[in-house]
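Quick one, probably user error.
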């Protein structure tokens, strides 16, 4: 991940029934990652898969509109298994802090 442009974002997150947290995430934008991978401009859907079998289908336009990111460090520390190692999809905007799109254990991104 060190070959990609990284940034730090402070974002609120409310995981399930747990109290709301604020963390600094080191990440790369999903759009930047897809551009580096030379994704076709005809792509319409992204499927994010997790190690545990969970997957989420997301329209390409939604990824741009929602400013999705792939995080790999939280508060300067690489993610632990509990936090969603190796990567975690997240949205740094207040209306999506509730976590249903904060996918832990991201292992694969499929473009169609």
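Nope, works fine. Designed sequence:
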């Amino acid at each position: 991940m060190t070959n990609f442009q990284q940034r730090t974002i402070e974002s609120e997150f409310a995981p399930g029934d747990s109290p709301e947290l604020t963390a600094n995430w080191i990440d790369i934008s999903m759009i930047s990652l897809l551009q580096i991978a030379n994704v076709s401009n005809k792509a319409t859907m992204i499927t994010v898969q997790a190690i545990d079998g969970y997957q989420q289908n997301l329209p390409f336009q939604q990824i741009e509109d929602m400013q999705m990111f792939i995080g790999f460090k939280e508060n300067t520390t690489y993610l632990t298994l509990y936090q969603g190692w190796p990567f975690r999809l997240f949205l740094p905007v207040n209306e999506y802090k509730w976590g249903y799109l904060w996918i832990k254990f991201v292992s694969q991104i499929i473009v169609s």
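Strands lie at 7-13, 21-29, 45-50, 55-59, 69-74, 77-78, 88-90, 106-111.
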